Amino acid sequence: MERRRFSWKERGNSFSYAWQGIKGLLLTEHNSWIHLGLTLLVIPLAIYYRITRLEWMFLIIVMAMVWAAELFNTALEKSMDFISKENHPQIKLVKDLAAAAVLISALAALAVGAIIFIPRILG
Ligand SMILES: Nc1ncnc2c1ncn2[C@@H]1O[C@H](COP(=O)(O)OP(=O)(O)OP(=O)(O)O)[C@@H](O)[C@H]1O
């Protein structure tokens, strides 16, 4: 295996590529606008209700899960479309599996959000 020297410039480039990925998601996937809207709604709400440190940790984890699942889902969709534009049951399965990962993480985020905010909103 080739041994390469550590380079701050290359590490910086990795961050820049990751940022381009987030921009790519926001520009091409309308679902991500919903995630962004909910993220921008939930953070001020959490500050307003002064949620606990433990609740912040859960909230951050589930929000990151949804964003990460959406990014992986989009990466898979784009690579499948690059491999073939044809209708194929295997492509359908891959895309449906990735979509299911987004759904599961979104449901978990919804449950955590409900547990944290519903008692405060009603109480
Ligand atoms: N090439 C294909 N062959 C078979 N089925 C496909 C194919 N492309 C898409 N599908 C089906 O259509 C669904 C939607 O796929 P598409 O690539 O349009 O994603 P999308 O509408 O952008 O989804 P998302 O809402 O997750 O962004 C897939 O989950 C799959 O069931």
From TrEMBL:
Task: Kindly state one GO CC term assigned in the UniProt record.
Answer: plasma membrane
For biological process, the GO terms are: phospholipid biosynthetic process
Q: Which UniProt keywords apply?
A: ATP-binding, Cell membrane, Kinase, Lipid biosynthesis, Lipid metabolism, Magnesium, Membrane, Metal-binding, Nucleotide-binding, Phospholipid biosynthesis, Phospholipid metabolism, Transferase, Transmembrane, Transmembrane helix
Chain residues that bind a divalent metal cation: E29, E77
Tell me what topology the record assigns in the membrane: Multi-pass membrane protein
Q: What is its main location?
A: membrane
InterPro entries membership: DAGK, DAGK_sf, UDPK
Q: Which cofactor does it need?
A: Mg(2+)
Q: How is the cofactor bound?
A: Mn(2+), Zn(2+), Cd(2+) and Co(2+) support activity to lesser extents.
Residues engaged in binding ATP = Y17, E29, E77, E86, N87, H88, K95, D96
Q: Which CDD domains match?
A: UDPK_IM_like (cd14265)
Entry binding sites for substrate: E70
Where does this protein reside within or beyond the cell?
Cell membrane
Q: Name one GO molecular function term.
A: kinase activity
Alphabetical list of Pfam families matching this protein: DAGK_prokar (PF01219)
Active-site residues, Swiss-Prot/TrEMBL = E70 (proton acceptor)
Instruction: Tell whether Transmembrane helix is among the UniProt keywords.
Output: yes
The entry sums up its family as follows:
Belongs to the bacterial diacylglycerol kinase family.
Question: Which named protein is this?
Answer: Diacylglycerol kinase (ATP)
Native organism is: Flavisolibacter ginsengisoli DSM 18119
